[in-house]
Amino acid sequence: MSSSLRTSSCKFKLEIIFHNIELDLFIFIYIILFISPGRTCEFCSVFVDHEHWQPFEPTRVTAVDETVKYRISVTRGSHECRVTGLRWQSFCNVELEYSLGDWDLYSDLLEKKGFVSCGPLMDLRVISGQLAAVHLPHFICLDTQHRWRDFRMLCAEDTGVSLEDCLISQFHAVQFCHTFIPMAVLVSSGVPVKAHCDILIYLSSTAHQTLHVYLIPGDVKMKESVEKREKGSVKICTTWPDVSLQMKQHYTLSTSCSSQITPQKLKLRYTSKTPNFFKT
Ligand SMILES: [Zn+2]
């Protein structure tokens, strides 16, 4: 992966070349900041969602232990949370509270069942009303052959958690609410998958002329972790490749000018704990 950052006409121009080591494949990205391309990969950008989703800004509540919770109170219909990408449908007024959970609690269960997470863990509570369906966001690109049985929904029941079948769409997995509350989307650990990714670039506040370049799956929890870690740094940009990238493979970064880059390669992985980055 090669990258350069230079100025021209008061705009930053950013050229990035990702190099997938395993496939020896180069992916070129060219961005002029302030011009926003489509939010997704070329393949998925042609996808048309015929449902009208009403965007909703949740109320943010911070608990004593600094856990962030979101609250909403809406009328019947199809709604989408602007912050987390969570969608839900209801035939009556509903009041919800939700937060982004930690995957650590379920890592043993997922390993035993042969699944990995591919989206944020939603700790969702229905305060009043009833949900007809919940659509949980995932970052998997469906540009290759996936079978519906490769996916599961982690659901909360009174007796514990279970893995349930679900419908999968381009950016969400759907669960019709009967006796359980959907929490997250899972994909079989044996299936090679590509992810829609985000690139986050920060100018370090502690080291002179040092950039931190993050390549992460497009997940709200991961972005939150990066933002927490880079508190005090200057955010240069958030952008994304126009192609999806193979998970669990290694990528390198290089620059057009002389610079020191560490580490030499990074594995594209999903973790909310310690997202890694290139330092250049
Ligand atoms: Zn895609």
From TrEMBL:
The chain crosses the membrane at residues 12-35. InterPro entries: FIIND_dom, NLRP_Inflammasome. It comes from Astyanax mexicanus (Blind cave fish). It comes from the Eukaryota. GO terms for biological process: innate immune response. Residues 49-280 form the FIIND domain. The lineage of its organism: Eukaryota, Metazoa, Chordata, Craniata, Vertebrata. One of its GO terms (cellular component) is cytosol. It holds the Pfam family UPA-FIIND. The keyword Transcription does not apply. It is found in: Cytoplasm, Cytosol. This is FIIND domain-containing protein.
